[in-house]
Amino acid sequence: xxxxxxELSQQAxxxxxxxxxxAVQKANSGHPGMPMGAADVAFVLWSRFLRYDPKHPCWSxxxxxxxxxxxxxxxxxxxxxxxxxxxxxxxxxxFRQWESKTPGxxxxxxxxxxxxxxxxxxxxxxxxxxxxxxxxxxxxRFNGGGFDPVSHRIxxxxxxxxxxxxxxxxxxxxxxxxxxxxxxxxxxxxxxSIEGETDLAYTxxxxxxxxxxxWHVQRVDxxxxxxxxxxxxxxxxxxxxxxxxxxxxxxxxxxxxxxxxAESHGAxxxxxxxxxxxxxxxxxxxxxxxxxxxxxxxxxxxxxxGAALRMAWEEKFEAWRAADAGKADQWDAIWNLKSVEGVVDxxxxxxxDGDAATRAHGGAVLQTAAELVPALAGGSADLAPSTKxxxxxxxxxxxxxxxxxxxxxGVREHGMGAIQNGMLYEGAFRPYGATFLVFSDYMRPxxxxxxxxxxxxxxxxxxxxxxxxxxxxTHQAVEHAWALRLIPNLHxxxxxxxxxxxxxxxxxxxxxxxPTALLLTRQKVPAVKRxxxxxxxxxxxxxxxxxxxxxPDAILIGTGSELQLAxxxxxxxxxxxxxxxxxxxxxVERFMEQDPVYRERMLPDGVPVGSVEAGVTAPWAxxxxxxxxxxxxDTFGASAPAGVVAEHFGIVPGSVISKVKEWLG
Length: 665
Description:
Layout: H1 6-27, H2 33-37, H3 39-48, E1 64-67, H4 73-83, H5 89-93, H6 123-142, E2 154-159, H7 160-164, H8 166-177, E3 183-189, E4 192-193, E5 196-197, H9 206-213, E6 216-221, H10 225-237, E7 243-248, H11 271-281, H12 293-323, H13 325-334, H14 343-349, E8 356-357, H15 358-372, E9 376-380, H16 384-387, E10 406-408, H17 413-426, E11 430-436, H18 440-452, E12 458-462, H19 480-485, E13 491-493, H20 498-510, E14 516-519, E15 524-525, E16 544-547, E17 554-558, H21 563-574, E18 580-584, H22 588-593, H23 596-602, E19 609-612, H24 621-624, E20 629-631, H25 642-649, H26 653-664
Parallel strand pairs: 1-2, 2-3, 3-7, 6-7, 9-10, 9-11, 11-12, 12-14, 13-14, 17-18, 17-19, 19-20
Antiparallel strand pairs: 4-5, 8-15, 16-18
Helix pairs in contact: 1-4, 1-11, 3-10, 6-8, 6-17, 8-17, 14-20, 15-20, 17-18, 21-26
């Protein structure tokens, strides 16, 4: 790339700084210090290294840039605007306002050029690891033979807060283990946090920590352009390890009174301080939001260079596709997040039968799904023998071979979730991650971001209730199903048998606008006899009629392993002349998405409704209504054999039947 001279470089850096400062000041809200302090690093990266075409922002072999320090989003918005992305000056001036394309933290899918939703610290750098992993997996499949269709790099700017958060350590450790040499992280080491200087709480040697992780480590002056460029080049050249560059910077760089102060982190500088900073830099006080013509011309030329790179790549790519139809088909299968046609019906047709734990059914369904969906890849947090989530036909991904589909995340649930998100941001593969349901707590921040960003991640959570037994309350999920259901745009499936497990996997794969969680049992469950067909017996609706007719005396909703208890209660009450409809509701969210007419037919007014689920009961009232009976477990579990625990908490047929009889009088 063309290297600008020193004068133009400084002019561009000042443009970046004061766009950020002016935008924060106009909004009277935001974080000016980080964009001003990291402007030199960002400019060098975007002007000399980053391969992009703003007119084709989704070019698959573009370099990815992740601003993990999402609070410094005006740095990213300034770079996107200057680089020619569809982010107008009016949007820069509308920073943090309603419906603007420049929200207070970057949002994937909302602002063109934003590669990841960042803000929760530690997520972005961990997403970058996931991007690098997916790119490595794709490169090992497709590169070679004279053309490498996957040659892009992943760049990330991270802050001290990112490195303090535990999720970044989990992901960084795995990145070193997997030798992700296509990843370069620049640590904006400005020594300032919200409360004051970072040494209030953070005195470790980050360089030594990352050396221990297996990374290539460098230190530079974060305001010396040639030193920054040399370090980035060395990071790019180091193909066998991920790289981190500790760039010593000064927050609010160039602001006479605000530089190196905690106050500049999260508050406008004030008109007087901005004026002083502009004067010190020889920058005009007016107009605000100034972009000099020379800077515009430089970035325009830079965009043209990127367009030329893209067009050259596309020409080679089309020739590569034409020369190898098999690889081209595989490329389309892996780089396409659209659903596989008919996958739900195909999995239902091959659904396992018989009595087994739904985790075992899930393992069987996964093998069929992996045959149907070449993009499917994933693993567990060191629990694959228990979660049954190994693809038997594939090898494992390792530091020396990334061509497999089985990922070993280690005991790193939070990192696993964030890495899954990164793989989806990258655009290749449909990742799944597995652990025990109780440990979904460790993944929740990453899952929430996936739901917010509409990423179709798949989570397999086994050991879903007190029926886990002897391991006791620390491992027995009680509140977790509803805790997950409360996350907007997350679909939660709790299947009752092999048929519903196949349904859950199929619906998860078919979904493209958000994540899906599968909650599976450790204990065996019987195959369910379904007596109703047609619209009311359609399991794809999330809640459907398993047994009953149009004029019930009451309705019982069962989920997962407790559906059998609802059916047992129906059978017992039928002997006493009571007509009970039993609804299986594997996915509350899908049921609530159905049209009101369908939901009214399933739950007609005036008919008492109850629920049976081995978990907290209060949230069920939003579905079952006033006067309902909601049977479950409203305390923590206990350590004992599963049958003993179930008997104690009343999640057995006799107890459920007695409670339903009492409820109905």
